[in-house]
Amino acid sequence: MQIATGNNMLNFGYWKNNATKPLEAQHELCKLVGKIADLDSARTVLDLGSGFSAPAIHWKSQYGNTNITCINTNFQQLLFAIKLVGSNISEPKADSFSLLQTNDIRFVNATATSLPFADNSVDRIIALESAQHFTPLDQFIRESKRTLRKGGLFVIAIPVIKEVPVKSSLFMKLGILSLTWASEHYSLDYIKSVIIKEDFHINEIQSIGSDVYDSLADYYMKNRKQLRERILKKYPSYLENILYKSLLKMKEVSQKGIIDYAIIKCTINRI
Ligand SMILES: C[S@@+](CC[C@H](N)C(=O)[O-])C[C@H]1O[C@@H](n2cnc3c(N)ncnc32)[C@H](O)[C@@H]1O
After folding, report:
1. What is the count of structural domains for the chain?
2. Ligand 1: which atom is nearest the Cα of residue 134?
3. What pLDDT is stored for residue 94 in this prediction?
4. Is the dihedral of CA 222, 228, 229, 230 positive or negative?
5. How confident is residue 262, by pLDDT bands cut at 50, 70 and 90?
6. Domain assignment of residue 13, yes or no
7. Which of 13, 175, 227, 229 is most buried, judged by most C-beta within 10 A?
8. Reading across the β-sheet that carries 200-207, which strands appear in turn?
């Protein structure tokens, strides 16, 4: 499920520190992830699943000395991102468009499960609300491990399932969300087990679900009339109804502890 917020971030946001609108909450989420990833001491960063690169632009503005490379399978989003960054672009060749570059940020059209980078070559790998789309998950985590330098940090911010062992009962509990949550439904335990199996050490896990889902749903309920009018200019009304019901469900299952939003920070156990 993607929320059309009229801005260039594609995440739910972190509704803390007086954030009252989606864009403010989304910047708060970037700020939190940047801090957890210790970006002030990073030289090279890969942002995997970079969307329109609004998070990378945010981090670049906060941590000017950092070289950020955005990785995305969606070439159109990368092209849009380049317009957002808007500085001198080295034109891609017609037959090779995998690397585009501006003065500030690099853009690579690739998948997180096969990273076109050398072993031990980057300081940070971040996947901000994107790893739920990466399959197989273990291949993405293995690639991240291969690419990270010794002492590097790996940070994932991801919607997760917290409970529910049996698949059919998960379907029942998620209700409409099982259809509109258009990605993998990885459980936190599964993600942790894969991370550990790939020889990462988990330094910290922050569970921020209530500051993500509940407040986003409340924002939508409070402003539904205006948001609905905006949506109906482009889409049929049944889609807005689905969005509305999905947000209500999201808040319900978050409050019941069935879903959460985890920020997981890891280091490599490499000698
Ligand atoms: C929910 S969006 C999050 C975008 C961005 N991180 C943000 O917060 O605005 C997920 C992104 O992951 C990208 N994506 C999906 N599968 C991918 C893959 N296998 N490798 C790299 N990017 C992928 C999508 O194109 C999309 O840009």
Report:
1. 1
2. 19
3. 39
4. positive
5. very high
6. no
7. 13
8. 99-101, 105-109, 67-72, 44-48, 122-128, 148-161, 259-268, 200-207
The answer to the question of residue 173 being in a domain is yes
Dihedral over Cα of 70, 27, 127, 39: its sign: positive
Residue 96: pLDDT above 60? no
Residues 6+ apart with CB under 8 A from 120: 147, 148, 149, 150
Residue 157 CA to ligand 1 center (angstroms) comes to 12
Instruction: Report if residue 85 sits inside a domain.
Output: yes
Pocket of ligand 1 (CB under 6 A): 9-11, 48-51, 54-55, 71-74, 77, 111-113, 128-130, 133-134
CA–chain centroid gap for 41, Å, is 21
- Nearest atom in ligand 1 to the alpha carbon of residue 30 is 8
Separation CA 67–CA 44 (nearest Å): 5
CB 47, CB 55: distance < 8 Å: yes
7 located within any domain: no
Choose between 7 and 82: higher pLDDT.
Answer: 82
- Please tell me the distance between residue 10's alpha carbon and the centre of ligand 1 in angstroms: 8
pTM above 0.85, yes or no: yes
- SS3 for 260? strand
